[in-house]
Amino acid sequence: MKIDEVASTTKKARVATHTHIKGLGLNEKGAAVAQAAGWVGQESAREASGVVVDMIKEKKMAGRALLFTGAPGTGKTALALGIAQELGTKVPFCPMVGSEVYSHEVKKTEVLMENFRRAIGLRIKENKEVYEGEIVEMTPEETESTSGGYGKVITSVVVGLKTVKGTKQLKLDPSIYDAMQKEKVKLGDVIYLEANSGSVKRVGRCDAYASEFDLEAEEYVPLPKGDVHKRKEIVQDVTLHDLDAANARPQGGSDIISMMSQIMKPKKTEITEKLRREINNVVNRYIDSGIAELVPGVLFIDEVHMLDQECFTFLNKALESQLAPIVIFATNRGVCPVKGSDGMVAPHGIPVDLLDRLLIVRTIPYTSEENVRILAVRADVEEIEMDEASLARLGEVGDETTLRHAAQLMTPAAVIAQQSGREEISIADLEECQRLFFDPKKSAKLLQEQADKFITY
């Protein structure tokens, strides 16, 4: 007899570089806990980020900017992701890299503006009258066709909806009956009907029929509670870029010519300033009337020194606009030339006039003890077993090379340990990894020693 195990369809989350970051690791008073939410050290930078989170939540940070600066591998990107975790999923968070603006299809300023608009959310609240329940009756009413012939047309449909509280009969328009036919609604199904728009949604099959023998996979839902007729507040979260894109490319129709024209259009189109102004006017009207609420999000620009002088002047203007998100920059550069300028040198490669607008948060290198604790957190996230001796040795590797290189050696060392028939990583596995994989310093030293064997021009 053949017995096979069915693999679970539950998706496993991939372990990325910053998977262990769950927030900023602050207590109720806003002080950084030594080790919390995946964080080790960087107390000052985390507390500064916590103040920024509070300002964002109180909507006092719109149109302002923050700069994370520090050596490579000191947690600048992790701080930005920690801020995103603290704000939650309802606040838009748009990450990008400075080099993304260099595209052959659209202008640099257009790429920046698109990301600005992606980082500004709009929460629209709408009160809707809805009918919800299990269909216990569906009787279409027909009359003779007025256009001649022997055909009959449906003038209305009588639908009986049942909930826990009671039953109600509704007489619906034939267009709603057509929508129900498209949704393949039948007796015993639970439906959701909007009174204002007439849209119908099939929620699923009522769980009273769950014992039926059905070859098809069916979703069973409980009988709705409350009355058939309800008033619901629908909250929808969109970004300003969603509104821009929806209005920039309206759908023409369902015929083959309009479909072909949509396919033939270029994938990337610039949105005009005039259209954005019109959308801003509509958004402002919604906000003034209380229908919508503006949710300023976070635009994170990593490697900001890759932007050129044109982008920096555009950012000066964009930060002053009424609809502006919180912008967080990050860079690991010191005093260096500003890209696109005639040899102008500035701190972090950012012009001084833009630096004046920024609150600067500095990240500091980790100590040897902090390196070991961070590697222990990463080992726990990646489900890698290491004893204290091998963890201490890996911390020494981080001191000699970089923390990133030490963290990258863990997975290859785990593979080598498994090949030797062990689950736990030993010092011998780490030494084998160091023999197989070079760190940047060792590679640079070899380049200097064997300079005559490489092309240098």
UniProtKB/TrEMBL annotation:
State where the protein is found.
Answer: Nucleus
Reactions that this protein is recorded to catalyse:
ATP + H2O = ADP + phosphate + H(+)
GO MF terms on file?
ATP binding; ATP hydrolysis activity; DNA helicase activity
Instruction: Please provide one cellular component term from the Gene Ontology annotations of this protein.
Output: nucleus
Which Enzyme Commission number(s) are on file for it? Answer: 3.6.4.12
Q: Per UniProt, which keywords does this protein have?
A: ATP-binding, Helicase, Hydrolase, Nucleotide-binding, Nucleus, Transcription, Transcription regulation
State a single Pfam family of this protein: TIP49_C
Query: Which residue numbers delimit the AAA+ ATPase domain?
Result: 62-365
Task: Look up the domain of life of the source.
Answer: Eukaryota
* SMART domains linked to this entry: AAA
Q: Which family does it belong to?
A: Belongs to the RuvB family.
| Protein name (database record) | RuvB-like helicase
Q: What's the source species for this entry?
A: Bathycoccus prasinos
Instruction: Write the lineage as a comma-separated list.
Output: Eukaryota, Viridiplantae, Chlorophyta, Mamiellophyceae, Mamiellales
